[in-house]
Amino acid sequence: MDRAAKAALGSVAIGLLVLGLKYVAYRLTGSIALYSDALESIVNVVAAAAALLALWISAKPADANHPYGHHKAEYFSAVLEGVLIVLAALSILRESYHGYMAPRPLEAPLPGLAVNAVASAINGLWSWFLISRGRRWCSPALVADGHHLLADVVTSAGVLVGVGLVAVTGWLVLDPLLAALVAVNILWSGWRMVRESVGGLMDEAASPEVLARIKALISEYADGALEAHDLRTRHAGRTTFIDFHLVVPADMRVAEAHEICDRVETALKQDVEGAVVIIHVEPEEKAKHKGVLVL
């Protein structure tokens, strides 16, 4: 099991722990807002399990039916998380409506709020870990899971403040209204996650920062070549595919051109984690006099 899969497995365990704590907080208070927080934690557990499955599938080597590997499985996991978030939000809105029509007083608000605060602190630390490591390891599934948890932390903070106000002021109608606001925030989080994942499924190019690094490396390490043009990139999970045309002098021997390609490929793979590089060598009459000029 690789490091990303271990992190996803940790998310399942953390999700179960936080779910248990938030359910206890809901049972202590009877708050609809805390119920909405607990319901989102159920989605967190399911989403973490989906991310773990996606990481396991994406780690499989290429085969006859999937010659480019299984990397895009992570994007399907992120899309599934987004859909689950939307379903959770709709369920919360339903409970909010019933709570607004028939408000009920809170029971033991302080112990419930304390338990919920502990759960939120755990989620906050774990979301930071997932986002930072997911970006470093180029794992869309971990980054999506981390952002999902971060949204949960933000909504939990709002819930804590709101339920505290209900306990202090006695305005029972604040509880279902707060739960409805949580649902709207969750809907936005789910939409953003689905949108980003669809971009990956549609072979979005690497970020401008990564693209600039790629161009700089080609220019620096392709000594002996003339230019590189038609540079293309795309992301597939933790893999970044890079392909371009490298123009060399017409009288250059094949072995020399191959040595340049090896040098550039090695530099790209060292700088861009998970890079898969394809270089098409062309003679100088194919030069387009644009793209990346070799220093």
UniProtKB/TrEMBL annotation:
Keywords: Membrane, Transmembrane, Transmembrane helix, Transport
Domain Cation efflux protein transmembrane: 11-202
Membrane topology annotation: Multi-pass membrane protein
Coiled-coil annotated residue ranges, if any: none
Superkingdom of this protein's organism: Bacteria
InterPro entries: Cation_efflux (IPR002524), Cation_efflux_CTD (IPR027470), Cation_efflux_CTD_sf (IPR036837), Cation_efflux_TM (IPR058533), Cation_efflux_TMD_sf (IPR027469), CDF_Transporter (IPR050291)
Pfam families: Cation_efflux (PF01545), ZT_dimer (PF16916)
Domain Cation efflux protein cytoplasmic: from-to ranges: 207-284
Ranges that cross the membrane: 7-26, 32-55, 75-93, 113-131, 151-171
Cellular compartment(s): Membrane
Main localization of the protein described in the UniProt heading: membrane
UniProt family annotation: Belongs to the cation diffusion facilitator (CDF) transporter (TC 2.A.4) family.
Protein name as it appears in the record: Cation diffusion facilitator family transporter
